[in-house]
Amino acid sequence: MRAVRPLVLCYHAVSATWASPLAVSPALLERQLSHLAARGYVGMTISEAERHRLARTLPRRVVVVTFDDAFASVLDGAEVLARVGFPGTVFALGAYGDGQVLDWPEVARWHATPYRAELRSLTWDELRGLHDRGWEIGAHSLTHPSLPTLDDETLATELAGSLERIADEIGTCTSLAYPFGRHDARVVAAARAAGFSVACTLSGSHPVDAPLQRPRVGLYATDDGWRLRAKVAPASLALRRSPLVHALERHVRGVRAPGKAGSLL
Ligand SMILES: [Zn+2]
C-alpha cells in the first residue's frame, strides 16, 4: 500500500487588494480551505504531520497550510484558518522580526508602489501570538538568498542562524522552507546538519519521499471554482507523485524559468 502523505499547501501574503501572484484574498483563502474541510481534510502543522508520518498514524486526508516569508497579512489568514479549524505554519526569516519591510531583489520592485505596506513582516511578538494559538513557526533562512548559490560557510550561517534565532524567540524551531524552493543535495545536507527535521520545497511533483524534501502545492488567486477542485482532486495529487510527471517537470524547468511565485519567493 502506498504511504499516506499530507497535502502541504504553500501561500505567501493574504490581501483583498494586492494584485500580486503572492497574495490570495481572505475570501478566496476561506473558499479554498473550506473546500478541503468539506472533503474531510484534517489540519496539522508541518512538524505534527511529520511526527504522525514517522509513527504511521497519519490520517488519510491531512492538510498542512504553510505561509512563506511571514508577511504581516498572515494575521488576516489566521482568522480564516481559525474559522475553518486548521492550524497554520509560518516560515519566517531570522533577520526580520521587527516588522521591517521585506527586502530582497525579487520583492523590492513593490517598494515604490502603493503596495509597499503589504511587505511589512510579522514581528516576533506577532509570531509568538500565532504560536500561542497552535501555529508552528519554522525557518526560511536569515535573509532569503538562493541557497544553492552560497558557499559552505554562508549556507551554514543562513540555516543554523535562522534556526537559532527563531528557537530563541519562539522556544522551538525544527522546520524549514527553502527560499524560492531552491535546493540541491548539498543544501539538503546542510539543512540536516543545522538541525532541521523537516524541510519544504516548492516542487509541483513529488516522487521523492524524504523529510527534508517535502513537496508543496501552491494555491494562487486563479485557483478557484473548477480549477481549485481539479488541483486538489485525489487523482491530480496521485499524478503529481508519478516519476514520469516529475521527469517532465524537470525537463520543462530546464528549458524555461519556473513561473508564478516559485520564481519570486
Ligand atoms: Zn520566500
Provide keyphrases for this structure.
38% helix, single chain, two-stranded parallel sheet, binds zinc ion, 265 residues, TIM Barrel, 6-stranded parallel sheet, 10 helices, alpha/beta
Descriptive notes:
With 265 residues, this protein is α/β, with parallel strands linked by helices. The chain has a single domain, classed as Glycoside hydrolase/deacetylase (TIM Barrel, Alpha-Beta Barrel), CATH 3.20.20.370. It contains 10 helices and 10 strands. The strands form 3 sheets. Strands 1, 4, 5, 6, 7 and 10 form a 6-stranded parallel sheet that branches. α1 packs parallel to α3 and α6 runs parallel beside α7. It is globular, with a radius of gyration of 17 Å. The termini are far apart. The C terminus is likely disordered. Zinc ion binds next to loops.
* Rg result: 17 Å
From the N-terminal CA to the C-terminal CA, the straight-line distance is 35 Å
What is the domain tally? 1
The biggest sheet amounts to: 6 strands, parallel
Number of strands: 10
Overall geometric form: globular
Which ions, cofactors or small ligands are bound in this entry? zinc ion
Order of helices and strands: EEEHEHEHEHHEHEHEEHHH
CATH topology: TIM Barrel
Concise structural overview:
The protein is α/β, with parallel strands linked by helices. The protein contains ten helices and ten strands.
Task: Indicate the topology.
Elements: E1 7-11, E2 13-14, E3 23-24, H1 26-38, E4 42-43, H2 46-54, E5 62-68, H3 74-84, E6 88-92, H4 105-108, H5 124-132, E7 136-139, H6 152-170, E8 175-177, H7 185-194, E9 198-200, E10 217-218, H8 225-231, H9 234-240, H10 243-255
Parallel strand pairs: 1-5, 1-10, 2-3, 4-5, 5-6, 6-7, 8-9
Helix pairs in contact: 1-3, 6-7
